[in-house]
């Protein structure tokens, strides 16, 4: 009977063998497990390898050229920070007013476009005339940066 034969079908070799030992080579070769192909990490911008650069310490996305550095004497939320003219591969959150050490500013948190780590903030508006030079500039905390390319 066909239904009874299906019950005796050998699971490993899919034949009616009565459940006895399977001869060597009777089983089909096991297929290798499927390989997971992770997409390569791509950044919006790559900085020239010939320039000293700062990168995200978490994912190595390029962040800024050394030539864009304005000051090393800034304070971030969690420690020392650098002020840059421009940065790459960062996203910007909504602006909000914060009372910082140098007065009231409108700032927007910035995060790494690749790994989404909050890096610092962008100065949107300074309310004191002596702080206007910061508008449009970026703070990146040192704990989130690594130096790359030609720092020796």
TrEMBL record:
Q: What is this protein called?
A: Protein yippee-like
Q: Which family does it belong to?
A: Belongs to the yippee family.
**Molecular functions (GO terms):** metal ion binding
What Pfam families does UniProt report for this protein, alphabetically? Answer: Yippee-Mis18
Kindly state which keywords UniProt assigns to this record, in alphabetical order: Metal-binding, Zinc
Zinc as a keyword of this entry, yes or no, is yes
Please list the residue ranges annotated as the Yippee domain: 52-149
């Amino acid at each position: 009977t066909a239904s009874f034969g299906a019950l005796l079908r050998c699971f490993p070799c899919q034949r009616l063998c009565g459940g006895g030992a399977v001869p060597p080579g009777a089983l089909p070769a096991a297929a290798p497990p499927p390989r997971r192909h992770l997409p390569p990490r791509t950044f919006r911008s790559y900085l020239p390898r010939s320039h000293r650069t700062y990168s995200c310490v978490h994912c190595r996305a390029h962040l800024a050229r050394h030539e864009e550095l304005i000051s090393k004497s800034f304070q971030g939320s969690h420690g020392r920070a650098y002020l840059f003219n421009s940065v790459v591969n960062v996203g910007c959150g909504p602006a909000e007013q914060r009372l910082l050490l140098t007065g009231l500013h409108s700032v927007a948190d910035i995060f790494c476009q690749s790994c989404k780590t909050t890096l610092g903030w962008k100065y949107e508006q300074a309310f004191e005339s002596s702080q206007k030079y910061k508008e449009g500039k970026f703070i990146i905390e040192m704990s989130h940066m690594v130096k790359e390319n030609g720092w020796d």
